[in-house]
Amino acid sequence: MTGSSRIVVSVTVLRPEEKRIVEAIRADGHDVVVATRRTYAAHFAQSEHKPDLVLMRNVSRDENLRMAHLFESAGVATLNSAAAIQACSGKDMQAMMFARSGLPHPRTHVAFTVDDVCDAFEGLGDVVVKPVNGSWGRGITRITSTSELAAWQAGREITEPRGRELPVIVQQNIPKAGHDIRAVVIGTEVAVVIRRVAEQFRTNTTLGATAEAVPATPEVLSLCARVVDLLGPGIYGVDIVQCGETGEYYLLEINSNPEFARSSDFHEVDIPAMVADVVGRTVTARRDLIDAVVGS
Amino acid sequence: MSNLVVCLACDSGLPTTNALELAEILSCTDCGQEFEVIETTPLVKVDYAPEVEEDWGE
């Protein structure tokens, strides 16, 4: 409890996990209103009662980014910030950002044409092709041979002849030992680390991968700390893979809107309470900052 | 604020509670159609829930 504030939770639809967050923020004594596409305009119009903070939980990525920019443009802080959401919005941009920041990331090419994909495959060998804006594992394909590459090309010629879904990223496949790692960062802390296990290379729980909570290794904690340094405190799902051959850790992707409905039953970490706590502390920190500036 | 909310597809009664939130999704137990709560006061009103879009998801 950090003092009552007016919090807006911005959503596309209010799924059970967003409702749990709303309830947790209310339990901390804050006023909470839910904003959707149908109602968000009202929150900009009430200049005397601007929200202290908007928690961005739109399941639509485009909407999440647009709404965050709109709220920030109206002078209302958002969590995550629009800049952090933007940075997480495309796998291509993330690859560039990781390379620029020296974060360990599989070698990645951005392919704007099918020929680019072929060239990248020739250079990298075993690759994973991913839509730059895909989610829940959709459209991700591993290509290990020229015949698989030909099959991928043929499929696109039929379903996507004009190449409107390009670019894609072509990424060095990291041979993982049957699992990858999802670390959930809330504020600056690692709330929970989940190991996702699947028989296929895609380990999205939406595709049926099983998951279990595991202790955070120093390597995972270090990578998450670097993510927070890069993007600022926020709420992130940090996807990490450990190479089964070398033991090296690679940062695969940062999600700015991590879901927890499928995993919270087994790890028993109270994610909504932790989110509510960070919401309260963020509002308090912003008030302290304003008081310091105004009072100086 | 609770009132009888009728499924727009099959006219069955939708399962509601007194703690409904704006944008909450209700599923018709008879036909399975999903609805979004678009008003909670003075009466609960619903509309068809948005379909899952290509850019949905983490």
How would you portray this structure in words?
The complex is a heterodimer of chains A (296) and B (58). Chain A is α+β, with helices and mostly antiparallel strands and 296 residues long. Chain A is built from ten helices and 13 strands. A five-stranded antiparallel beta sheet of chain A has the order 11-10-9-12-13. A four-stranded parallel beta sheet of chain A has the order 2-1-3-4, sandwiched between helices. In chain A, strands 5-8-6-7 form a four-stranded antiparallel beta sheet, with helices on both faces. In chain A, strand 12 and strand 13 form a beta hairpin. With 58 residues, chain B is an all-beta fold. Helix content of chain B is 0%, strand content 22%. Chain B has no helices and three strands. Chain B has a three-stranded antiparallel beta sheet, with no helix packed on it. In chain B, strand 1 and strand 2 form a beta hairpin. Chain B starts with 24 loop residues before the first strand and ends in a 10-residue tail after the last strand. Chains A and B meet through helix 3 of A and strand 2 of B.
Task: Outline the secondary-structure elements.
The complex is a heterodimer of chains A (296) and B (58).
Chain A: E1 6-10, H1 16-27, E2 31-35, H2 40-45, E3 53-56, H3 61-73, E4 78-79, H4 82-87, H5 91-101, E5 108-111, H6 114-124, E6 127-131, E7 141-143, H7 146-159, E8 168-172, E9 179-187, E10 189-197, E11 210-213, H8 218-231, E12 234-242, E13 249-255, H9 264-267, H10 271-295
Parallel strand pairs in A: 1-2, 1-3, 3-4
Antiparallel strand pairs in A: 5-8, 6-7, 6-8, 9-10, 9-12, 10-11, 12-13
Helix pairs in contact in A: 1-10
Chain B: E1 25-27, E2 34-39, E3 45-48
Antiparallel strand pairs in B: 1-2, 2-3
